[in-house]
Specification:
eight-stranded mixed sheet; four-stranded antiparallel sheet
Length: about 625
């Protein structure tokens, strides 16, 4: 018979150490002949990205060994930091110097681009014998010069500009005959989910044609079906769907659905679909959760791969496709799909160090908020060895994703299970502004950051408590980056929450506009308003503008190397809490940037978060001492 214990104090095999080592994140994948190559984060090696391969005989080797680190810094968030040729040569961006290198397995790396501290590379693609990249060159101005370049692979050091003329460029694609280049471009103040332009250049004449664009359209990810026909995602009707576009004709929709094949282009390597040699298309469709489908002339059918969140179609070659993401049990992995036979094979990941009985099931919730419906996923306390104390409602942590233009799917993370296995529920909220529900839901946050997001998370948390599923007196809110902003705004503008955890969160919107990097330099124009006209609104919305409203205990976590939200913001929050006598703890992690990658940081931050909740909500945390608050 299961023991009866107070929520929060349940014993669990899911330790901070096991969370830090659970299902490494897949960072791109490619089919290289009979081999499968993929990038993989290694938390125990300071979070570096290694590149591995599975040989035809099933053996796994590391192609990019330590200390090399395939990480791009383009747009600060990077992406597309590696690719490979069909004959097995790796091309990667080294994090330390942002140069592009070539590496044959078992040999030494050789630099392909010159040393230049002002230059970064990302979005690598190797297509039809040509290595393409997005190059970012920093100078005296605030906006770096960006271009799509061809990088010679013959040790000549030659780098040729193929396209430029926009503030931002991404997703280069070369036609099969090598004669045309397609890419996505956009300019300040737009973000790539607001308005983009799909362009095609004739590389022999230099002529550039705008293929798809519009004020409320964001075409994404051009893929060539033939030398004169493109496949891409676009959202003229409010949902990202696929379109075929013969360059001499007009675009035609491909199997439109009330779901999104596309998303927020935060990182350059993201891909939502791919085309097989025979014209079949493998695509992600997102409507809350993710589904993988095959689109053929005969119709649309689901692909039997267990990915429900964070899905990407990393590569499609012949009748084989590589799909990455997380399954309903929260296990991240990479799957190889045979489109002819329907067989699906797990390549890497997809496993944890604990049994499935410890993983909570996602419960999709929708509730009415002040601005319309609010979507969320709830994870109830789950522990096969413990029953809750009679009559006790569980405490909950309400998670606020970053972005804010981002999305969470119905897949519990290892961190979620860390809490639910201890008797602490988790509510993951896709507040207005999130992707995955169409443009109208995404646009709800325009001009309303600090209002709609706060109202929506408060409405979702209150609905959970009103339904008797959570203890209304023990609701914590936690989030990082833009999610940290919502945490701070929620604890100063509502009385729903009793504790807050902010990871590298924004406390002063005006300071963020001054300090942040170019990719997001005009993001706040859409989220709050353009400066200087909207300066009063920046002040009004910022939690630090009214420090006297900080009333509940807060845990502040920050990295020293964060260039998106610098430590000065976290320190200002700490000082405000101290000045007003609010219980708090501030932890600064040396060497961490915007998002924690090192295993030791993940372990320590989890311990502190659990100890903080135990101290504030009054339950024992076996193995973790209560966090001492200043």
């Amino acid at each position: 018979m299961a023991d009866s214990l107070p929520h929060g104090s349940w014993p669990s095999p899911i330790t901070p150490e096991s969370v830090s080592q659970s299902s490494p994140r897949v960072d791109g994948a490619r089919l290289v002949g009979a081999e499968v190559w993929w990038g993989e984060s290694v938390p125990t090696e300071a979070g570096r990205v290694a590149v591995k391969r599975r040989l035809a005989d099933g053996a796994v080797e590391t192609v990019l060994p330590a200390p090399a680190n395939a990480r791009s810094a383009v747009h600060e968030y990077g992406g597309g930091a590696w690719t490979a040729s069909d004959d097995g040569e790796l091309f990667y961006v080294e994090k330390a110097d942002q140069r592009v290198y070539a590496l044959r397995p078992g040999r030494s790396a050789r630099a392909l681009t010159p040393a230049d501290d002002a230059v970064r590379h990302g979005g690598l693609r190797f297509e039809h014998g040509m290595l393409l990249a997005v190059r970012e060159t920093h100078g005296d101005g605030r906006v770096p010069a960006r271009a799509i370049v061809r990088i010679a692979t013959d040790d000549s050091g030659a780098v040729e500009v193929l396209a430029d003329g926009s503030d931002f460029l991404a997703q280069p694609a070369l036609s099969p005959d090598g004669g045309r280049l397609a890419w996505v471009a956009w300019n300040h103040p737009d973000m790539p989910w607001d308005a983009t332009i799909l362009r095609v250049a004739d590389l022999s004449t230099g002529e550039v044609v705008d293929v798809a664009q519009g004020r409320d359209r964001a075409p994404l990810q051009p893929v060539w079906l033939a030398d004169d026909e493109l496949l891409y995602a676009d959202d003229p009707d409010g949902r990202w769907n696929l379109f075929r576009h013969p360059l001499a004709g007009t675009a035609q929709p491909v199997a439109p659905a009330d779901a999104d094949t596309g998303g927020a282009l935060w990182v350059l390597g993201t891909r939502w679909f791919g085309a097989a040699d025979d014209g079949r298309i493998v695509a992600v469709r997102t409507n809350g959760g993710d589904e993988i489908v095959e689109i053929a002339p005969s119709g649309v059918r689901p692909v039997d791969v267990p990915v429900v969140a964070g899905a990407a179609i990393d590569d499609v070659r012949g009748a084989r496709a590589l799909v990455s993401g997380a399954d309903a049990g929260g296990r991240s992995g990479l799957w190889l799909v045979d489109l002819d036979s329907g067989a699906t094979e797990l390549v890497t990941g997809g496993a944890g160090s604990w049994g499935e009985e410890w993983m909570p099931a996602a419960r999709a919730l929708s509730t009415d908020g002040p601005h319309g419906p609010v979507h969320a996923f709830a994870y109830a306390p789950t522990n096969p060895d413990v029953a809750p104390a009679a009559g006790e409602r569980p405490p909950y942590v309400v998670l606020v994703h970053g972005g804010p233009t981002s999305h969470v799917g119905p897949a519990p993370s290892a961190k979620t299970a860390f809490f639910t296995s201890r008797g602490i529920g988790v509510l993951d909220v896709n507040y207005g502004g999130s992707t995955g529900y169409g443009r109208a839901y995404r646009d709800r946050l325009k001009g309303q950051w600090g209002v709609v997001d706060v109202d929506d998370v408060a409405a979702a948390a209150s609905a959970l408590a009103d339904a008797g599923l959570a203890d209304a007196e023990r609701l914590a809110i936690a989030g990082g980056s833009a999610g940290g902003w919502t945490v701070l705004a929620a604890v100063t503008n509502t009385d729903v929450f009793s504790a807050g955890i902010s990871r590298y969160g924004v406390g002063d919107a005006r300071a963020l506009a001054d300090d942040t990097h170019d990719f997001e330099a005009r993001y706040l124009d859409g989220l709050i308003g353009p400066l200087p006209e909207a300066e009063a609104m920046y002040i009004e919305r910022s939690p630090l503008s009214r420090p006297e409203r900080f009333r509940i205990p807060l845990l502040i976590l920050q990295g020293t190397e964060d260039r998106v939200v610098p430590p000065s913001q976290a320190e200002a929050i700490r000082d405000a809490l101290a000045a007003h006598g609010v219980p708090h703890a501030y932890v600064l992690y040396e060497g961490e940037g915007h998002g924690f990658r090192r295993a030791e940081t993940v372990v320590d931050s989890l311990r502190r978060e659990l100890g903080f909740l135990g101290a504030v909500f009054g339950f024992d945390t076996p193995g973790v001492p209560p966090l001492e608050l200043d």
